[in-house]
Each structure stands twice: as C-alpha cells, then as structure tokens.
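Bug report

Summary: structure tokens for Zn-dependent hydrolase differ between web form and batch submission.
Environment: batch mode, default settings.
Steps: 1) Submit the sequence below via batch. 2) Compare with the web form result.

Sequence submitted:
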Amino acid sequence: MTEAPTLTRIDAGLLDALMDKASVFGSTGDGGVDRPALTDAHKAVRDWFADELRARGYRVVVDAIGNLFGRLDLAEPDAPLVMIGSHLDSQPKGGRFDGAYGVVAALAAVETLRRDMAERGETPRCNYVIADWMNEEGARFQPSLLGSSVFAGALELDWALDRRDRDGKSVGDELIRTGYKGSDAAPRPDLYLEIHIEGDDKMEKAGARIAPFLRHWGALKVRIEVTGEQNHTGPTPMEDRKDAVLGAAHIITFVRELADTAADVLFTSVARVDVAPNSPNIVPGKAVLFCELRAPEPTMLEWSEARLREALPGLAARAAVTAEIVSVDRRAAGRFDTRLVALAETIADDFGYPKMRLDTIGGHDAVALNAILPAIVVAVPSVGGVIHRNDEYTSPEDLAAGGDVLVEMIRRIDRVSGDLDKAAGAP
C-alpha cells in the first residue's frame, strides 16, 4: 500500500488576519476597495505590507519601477530562489480579493512553511521572495502589468516611468511622491507562483476548488482618437455637426460586433471613453477610446486588428469625423509551465480538492514572468464569478484551500531543491 503523503496546510488564521487587514486600506465601506496604483490608499497598503515583511525578518527591496519585494534567505546564498506574489493595487471601486489575496497568501504560505520545517528539524533548500507588483491593474496608468513587464524586460524602464494618468501625472513622479521610486536590484527568481481568484463562474458551476491555468490569452490594448469639431448643442444644425462621441459610438458597436462574429474565441470591449470638453452643452470635439481585443490565438488577434483598421475610416465618416489608432499595447498568448500545472493538480488530488483546468482571459503578473521563467497562476472560485466589483467574494474555506495548495507546492519544490521535473512526484 502506498503511504499517504504528508501534507502541510496553510496557517488559515494568519491568512484571514492578513486578508482582513489588507482590506481596510482604501475600503469603500460596501465590501470593496478603491486603491489604483500609486494613490494614497495604495501607498498605505504597501507601507503596511512592507512593515509586516520587516517584522518577520524579510529584507525589503524596491526596484526602479516600484515593485516591492520581501526576500527571506533560509538556505545557502546560491540556492534556488522561489518567488510568490501578486499585486496590492485595485480597480476603482474594485474587489478586495483580486490581487491582494495572492500577496497575503504568499506571505502566509512562506511563514507556514518556515514554521513547519523548523518544527520538523528540516533544513530549507530554497530561498524565497514575495512580490507585490506595481500597477498590475492598469486602471490609472496604462498598460496593465507595468511593473512585472519592466521586470521581465518586455517594457523599457524610462518608457514605463513616463506613463501618465488622465490628470497628466507620471508614474515616475508618483513613485517619488509615494516613496516607492526604489534603486535596489530586483531579485532574479528561478520560478514564480501566483494564487488568484478565478473571475468567472466556471469553477463554481463545476464544483471545483482548485484550477491551474493552462494558457493565457493574448491581448491588444488599442487606443483610438476620434476627432470632430466642437460646437454648441443648441443652434448648430444637425447636418453640420461633427460629433466625436457619435463617431465613437459607431466604433464601439463595431468592436462588439467583432466578438459576435467569433463567439468564444474573441472577447472585446471599450470600457473607457475620455470625452473633450465633456460638457452637456457642447458637441464634443474629441473622444479617446480604450479598446481591448483578447483571444487565445495570435491569428484571431491579427484578424480582429486588421478588421478594425479597415473599418475605422468608414465608421468615422458616418459621423463626419476622423478616427486614428494612436497606440497598440500587445500581450502575447502563451502556456504556463506544464510541470507546475501537474504539481498543482497532484496536490489538489492529495488534499481531496475537486479540480479543473482553465485558461485565463484576464492578465496576471505571471503572464509577464512566464516569458522568462517557469510560472503559473492557480485559481480558486469567486462566488458568482464576480471580479472588479465591490461584492467580489471568495469564502474563507476556499481561500484556505488555495493556500494549502500553494504552501504544499513550495514545500515539494523545496524538498527537491527547485527541480521542477521531480517536484510533482516528491512525497
């Protein structure tokens, strides 16, 4: 008879306490949080988390793009370095679990492992670093995954520092204002783990509690400027109006129609429109559209971008305006490390947690890191599939189940000195 594996369960009390404390910062009073990157609320939660790290003996490191790391060296200096993390910034009026769960679970997992290994008299074979990535959400500064993309070499530092919010404030200036314009060298891990809420209801419907993501969809973040002519909304004859918002409306409708022609393999949105001068008594002279195209395959993204470019002049002409694509941020589709997928699934089975496999359509910092090292996101269910909203909710039991899988993943990785080919079979 095969002996059942010894399993390490996360310190659920510590996880709950950290989750509750993180939720205080930027609280909207209705269950949600509002702390876009480099706002005062975001600074406050990062300050708190950095203090938590220091109090437990972690060395706090902040790099030039404001990524916050807590490093704990338990093994030899040249031992493999395991990174676990997510992000503490949120969407405006967003949910309290998105991102923050991954950061506090990383700390709770490493602390649990550290305690249990000391109690068992085991010598750690890996070192650890917890990551809080800067501006994962892309709510205030675009593009999203900004800090992790600079870390991974996909974006230039100076370009990222010059990204500006709608008030013209730059990332670089706001990093200085909040005290997170660091100068430390970022740690270079051997692998990266991230735990996250799902953001869909597939797990809930299937009764699954653990779901490693197999693939991450690609995305195009397209900024379109529609230019009309500012005029009075009263006396200006209708036939003479060059209404930028009307032109924007035609484009928005077309972007949705693109998705309708490619059901389940293309997701599209125009979720932000900046209108100038934005007065109820002025025919708007300009509208800037923030358009997204997401697909699992590059050919679909290429097709949808080509169709949008072809259609744009005609759509604008219907409102007697002009439209121009002024920027496109591209994020490639890909697959997460199959060894980490297998490890997560094995551990879910060992705990008896129902599992399933999923793709992630939304972006995660693990997507950026996946381009340079083995990485994975493991999901737990979100009630009703709600994400980016104040009533986003995952039960304490499911949060703990995800934490169990996370801490057991790092325990088995540690037992084999970071050898991922061996980790899934480690007892």
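Above is the batch result. After comparison, the two runs are identical; trailing whitespace caused the diff. The longest helix spans residues 100-120. The chain has a mean pLDDT of 96.
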